[in-house]
Structures are given as structure tokens and as C-alpha cells.
Design a protein that fits this description.
21% strand, alpha+beta, Muramoyl-pentapeptide Carboxypeptidase, domain 2, binds zinc ion, 8 helices, 266 residues
């Protein structure tokens, strides 16, 4: 009995002593592709609107902030063309593309094989997360966008605001998607910077974290970030936690981001 009381007291003591927060999945690092598809009824919470286009509130905020700095750098005219798309809408645009290809003489299976290289299957599009943004300067989504001042600026700077060019020219084998300089994906900071520095796509970033388990990113202004991987849902988290994101719905793989300052570092 005494033993049990001591144990219970110890557990309560530890629970009070260790600051903890509930693990809310930010969704920022969800991996969505043809092998990791979202369900037809998945709709993210926190969808807002920018000039009539629906997108995730977090991506919205980062986009507006980035646009302001872009304009301060003398680059104007970046337009948001498309962001959040529902499962049904994605189904409709995929079917439309298949029809167009069939009209060009492809058989239905051939048309579907070809369509999937430029338009994701329903559930396989990260537009369903509201975190993917298609941008342009002339209303067109073409590879030539990558050579425009806006395309070059995004390539060089968008990571600072949490965005990555999700389908780079050199990674089509991994992403299974053609080069899309116009498609930005919000993954948050400092993940976007790490992915850029290490030249990793989101597929590769998860594989890398799974392998190394922990990564330290040295930031500015006396900050550093501990990025850790877990294959169990985190229950007790440090108060400095910045965010936790799983790899996707109902999947037990997590990246936990903690921000610390140098004086407390060691
Ligand atoms: Zn897109």
C-alpha cells in the first residue's frame, strides 16, 4: 500500500513537474501523393480566402507576408491562381484532362497514364490540404514561369516563409510529377529551409528524418531548432514545442519541432 502511494505520488509529481501540451497535428508536413492519398471526405479546418481563392489560414498568412517582401524587392504581379481544391473538384479536373487527351486520339488507359503525370488523382493532390498554392504572373501555369523574375525570386527566397517548390526539375523521378515551378507547398519553417539546404523533396525529408531521427537547425537571433522523429504519437511535449506534424491522417509517424535559445542550449 505504501509502495502504491509512493508510486502514485511520484507520477503526480512528474506530471506537474514536466510541462506538457496536447499534441495537435499541424498538418504542415503531411505527405500527400499517389501512394499517400487523402480520403474523399477530408477537408482541413481553418480554410480562409484570399481574393476569392480558398486556402489554409497558415499558408494564407505566410503567403501575404512573402508577397510584401517580394514587392519590397521590386517584384510585382504575383497572382494566386488556385489553392484549396476538394476531392470532388480534383476528380472533375482529372476527368476533364483525360477527356481532352482522348479527343487527341489517346485510348482511355493511355490518357489516364498521361494525365496522372501533370494532374494528381483525386485524394493524391496536396491542394486538398489547402497548403499548396499555384501562382503565376500572367494567369498561365507553365514551366516558363521558373525563368521569370517572380519564379526566380520564389526559388531563392520562398523557403524563408515556409514554402518549397514541391516538384523541382531534378526530382521528377521521386515526386512522379513533372517540373512545376508554380506549385508552392507550405511546410513551415525551418523545414522549408532544411529541405532547400539539403536539396530534399518532402518524400525525401521524411525518409531522411526516419533515418537520422534528430536534426538540429541553427537559426538566427540566438535560436536553434530540434527536429525529432517519432513513430509513436507524442504525449508529453516540451513547452518550447513549435509544432508537431504527422506524415498523414491516421499514420503513426511524427516530426516534432522544438525551438530553443542558445543560453539554454547545453
Ligand atoms: Zn498545384
Amino acid at each position: 500500500m505504501i509502495h502504491k502511494c509512493i508510486t502514485a505520488a511520484f507520477v503526480i509529481f512528474v506530471m506537474v513537474l514536466i510541462p506538457h501540451v496536447s499534441a495537435n497535428d499541424s498538418g504542415a508536413l503531411w505527405l500527400v501523393n499517389r501512394n499517400n492519398r487523402l480520403s474523399s471526405d477530408y477537408k482541413p479546418a481553418g480554410i480562409t480566402e484570399y481574393k476569392g481563392i480558398q486556402l489554409h489560414g497558415t499558408a494564407h498568412k505566410a503567403f501575404v507576408q512573402m508577397l510584401k517582401i517580394m514587392e519590397q524587392d521590386g517584384i510585382y504581379g504575383l497572382r494566386l491562381q488556385s489553392a484549396y481544391r476538394s476531392y470532388n473538384y480534383q476528380q472533375a479536373i482529372f476527368n476533364q484532362r483525360v477527356k481532352e487527351l482522348q479527343a487527341q486520339g489517346y485510348s482511355k488507359p493511355e490518357a489516364e497514364m498521361k494525365a496522372v503525370k501533370s494532374i494528381q488523382l483525386p485524394g493524391a493532390s496536396e491542394h486538398q490540404l489547402g497548403l499548396a498554392l499555384d501562382v503565376s504572373v500572367d494567369g498561365k501555369l507553365t514551366q516558363a514561369f521558373g525563368e521569370t523574375p517572380a519564379g526566380k525570386w520564389l526559388e531563392a527566397h520562398s523557403h524563408k516563409y515556409g514554402f518549397v517548390i514541391r516538384y523541382p526539375y531534378s526530382k521528377t523521378e521521386i515526386t512522379q510529377i513533372v517540373y512545376e515551378p508554380w506549385h508552392l507547398r507550405y511546410v513551415g519553417t525551418p523545414h522549408a529551409t532544411i529541405m532547400k539546404n539539403l536539396d530534399l523533396t518532402l518524400e525525401e525529408y521524411w525518409a531522411y528524418m526516419r533515418q537520422i531521427q534528430m536534426y538540429i537547425f541553427w537559426g538566427e537571433d540566438g535560436e536553434y531548432y530540434l527536429i525529432s522523429y517519432s513513430d509513436a504519437p507524442p504525449i508529453v511535449l516540451p513547452t518550447e514545442m513549435l509544432c508537431v506534424s504527422s506524415i498523414g491522417a491516421n499514420k503513426n509517424e511524427y516530426i516534432i519541432t522544438t525551438r530553443k535559445t542558445y543560453p539554454n542550449a547545453w
